[in-house]
Amino acid sequence: MSQASNPTQQRTFAQQIRKNYIGWLFIILSVLGISLFYFYPMVQALLLSLQSGMGSTLEYVGLDNYVRLFNDPTFITALTNTILYLLIQVPVMIVLALIFSVLLNDPTLKFKGFFRTAIFLPAVTSLVAYAVIFKYLFGNDGLVNDFLLSMNLISQPLNWLSDPFLAKITIIIAITWRWTGYNMIFYLSALQNVDKSMYEAAKIDGASAVQQFFFITIPLLKPIILFTSIVSTIGTLQLFDEVMNITSGGPGNATMTISMYIYNLSFEYTPDFGYAATVSYVILILVVILSFIQFKVAGDRD
Amino acid sequence: MKQLKRVFTYLFLSVAAIVSIFPFLWMLVSMTNKSVDVTAGRLIPGTHFIENLNNLLDQTQIGTALWNSFLIAVITTVLTLLIGSLAGYGFEIYRSKGKDIVFNILILSMMIPFAAIMIPLYRLFGQISADAPLIGLDTLAAAFLPTIITAFFIFFFRQNTKMFARELVEAGRIDGLSEWGIFFRIYMPTMKTTYAAAAIIAFMNSWNNYLWPLVVLQSPNKQTIPLLISNLGAGYTPDYGVIMTAIVIATLPTALVFFLMQRHFVAGMMGSVKG
């Protein structure tokens, strides 16, 4: 009996090893690619951040670059702007997306398909293309001013792009226009998986629509809200295309972001790759800290 | 009260829809108008589309830029889907503790902002330029190579593979298919919807990619569509009609891809949201 089963067992064992080995083959390209294009550059950036110099002649300067950060007004402005975009834009966008998705999830609502497609439409545009359009829409003689003037909401054209405060608002409006519908799709997909009987039970118990929203919808969507807020946070911290194409970081440095500053340090000003790498590590550290906080706040089990 | 709420809902959604659609309508209308009419805020279609198109073709290398973007997007999409799905399948079907650790490490790369690795990547491609001129700086390959392997697609395919019936793998083995045969002849055809959703995302990402091509591509004949539009928009005396024509042409492919495959997109996304 044991003699008969032994060869089979051995064969299964050999098969197991073979399958395990093939399993690694399926993932090897990805492991190599991500190591080469993500992890290796990250280590290189850390080494670079300890060096300084113009162009390709670099020498190790220890933590000088990190000290320089705190005395660099442009860096401080870029950091403040980026965090400001984040604090205002991400919550506004997520709340808006949640409201849209709840309204559009109502089975009795008419023209659902139209509203859904219309609100999602901005997400198919290229960042550069829509940024250029927004630059013209918010120009001094642009349509936004025309509209506000014709509605008598303002008495003279607003300097959307050349006023430091309004320029920031323009950037925030632009990103919100582009990404709200994108986030809405995630919430809609998640809402469609929600058991309808929960809402019916709540209705019988006399819960209002607002109560249902806060006590059923939000808790159920928590994992996906966490996911979208982390993705949006990372996206906002990396904001580049819009700022580059709407305001070029101006007026002054009023709309400058960290990503744009890194680009300027590397390719616009006299290149200082070492200092640019130092600034880039700030984004990395911010992403890690903020994602960690979001996980904690959401209190996710995983 | 209920009626009033309804009215408010429709009003709110209508305003949102108009705000969302308006820039599209404006660029479509502006494409047919002269530059001065665009700045004057004319909202009625004109008759200058052919003229704008001709100017666009004369003044820019839009044909080349379209071709470059198309080539990069198609190659990127095919390779991203292939490599991402192989890994997603590999991680889900051949589970082991070692692979779970590797998977978690790969997922961490999603946290790395592109700006943080842009300079080392630029230097990396600079260093290989002399030895490997075909994939060095200022080549189309350099513009897509760092984008084809991302943790996002590995994660996406792994999530969706959870819905793939494992019995099919066993059935394939009994029928004598190799492990690769099972992947290519059973898994791939079964997961068409997932591939379609991933294709839409990969194609759009690639078509719209701006920062890395801006850094890595220098020659005018290597320009992609976003680079061309950015340059047009930054000109001192911009011809708005021409720019709008370029923007419409640049937006059409992604809008078409999306609308033709919308059903697959929503179905595919649902799979990954369910977890």
Automatic annotation (TrEMBL), chain A:
One of the GO biological process terms: transmembrane transport
Locations listed in the record: Cell membrane
Keywords tagged on the record: Cell membrane, Membrane, Transmembrane, Transmembrane helix, Transport
Membrane-crossing segments per the record: 21-40, 83-105, 117-138, 213-234, 273-293
Start and end residues of each ABC transmembrane type-1 domain: 79-294
PROSITE patterns the record matches: ABC_TM1
Gene3D superfamilies associated with the record: MetI-like
InterPro entries in the cross-refs: ABC_transporter_permease (IPR051393), MetI-like (IPR000515), MetI-like_sf (IPR035906)
Bilayer topology annotation: Multi-pass membrane protein
Listed GO CC annotations: plasma membrane
Family according to the record: Belongs to the binding-protein-dependent transport system permease family.
Name of the featured protein: ABC transporter permease subunit
Native source organism of the sequence: Gracilibacillus salitolerans
Automatic annotation (TrEMBL), chain B:
Main localization of the protein described in the UniProt heading: membrane
GO BP field: transmembrane transport
GO CC field: plasma membrane
Keywords attached to this entry: Cell membrane, Membrane, Transmembrane, Transmembrane helix, Transport
Transmembrane portions of the chain: 7-29, 65-89, 101-122, 134-157, 194-212, 240-261
Domain named ABC transmembrane type-1: residues: 66-261
Endpoints of the signal sequence: none
InterPro entries linked: MetI-like, MetI-like_sf
Membrane topology, as annotated: Multi-pass membrane protein
SUPFAM superfamilies linked to this entry: MetI-like (SSF161098)
Location(s) in or outside the cell: Cell membrane
Keyword Cell membrane carried by entry: yes
Family assignment from sequence similarity: Belongs to the binding-protein-dependent transport system permease family.
Name of the molecule in the record: ABC transporter permease subunit
Species of the source: Gracilibacillus salitolerans
